[in-house]
Specification:
about 150 residues; about 20% helix; elongated; eight-stranded antiparallel beta sheet
């Protein structure tokens, strides 16, 4: 017996159980974080006239537009703020504030900015076969549109 009154076998078992529980908790947390970060990367736009870079900042996910060729000179001419209509679309962060929902296995509560009309929509993202599905909608997700962005390998 040791000073605290527990048999040595009980103390060893308690320590082993504590170590195993800590390892399991660390694995679960790391797995969820790795799953959430699985969206980070480069994707082709649906028309393949540019790329989208998904990145993480302050535990939220964002998407930046990277245009090429002639379209890289396009301006944000439909922006509701007249001061922003001269800004280039190339480099604009048009996907904002997505949070990963482990329960739903998708990124929710985000916004997508539609440069073609200057409007912002509620949105969620999910991965399917390595590609990014982005659904923008008004009100409820039934009233919206889904676009597929092919991951660049």
């Amino acid at each position: 017996m040791i000073a605290i009154g527990l048999p040595m076998k009980t103390l060893h078992l308690s320590i082993i159980l504590l170590i195993v529980a800590t390892a399991i908790a660390a694995y679960v947390f790391t797995s969820a974080e790795n799953e959430a970060d699985g969206v980070i990367g480069l994707y082709w736009t649906p028309a393949k006239d540019g790329k989208v870079e998904i990145f993480k900042k302050d535990n939220k996910y964002f998407g930046k537009l990277i245009l090429s060729g002639k379209s890289s000179d396009d301006k944000d001419e439909h922006n509701p703020d007249p001061k922003l209509r001269d800004r280039p679309l190339n480099g604009i962060v048009f996907l904002t504030n997505f949070e990963y929902s482990e329960k739903e296995s998708k990124w929710i509560n985000g916004k997508v900015y539609g440069a073609d009309n200057g409007k912002s929509y509620r949105a969620f993202m999910k991965l399917k076969n390595g590609n990014l599905l982005l659904r923008g909608y008004i009100g409820i997700s039934l009233i919206g549109r889904t676009e597929t962005f092919e991951r660049i390998k």
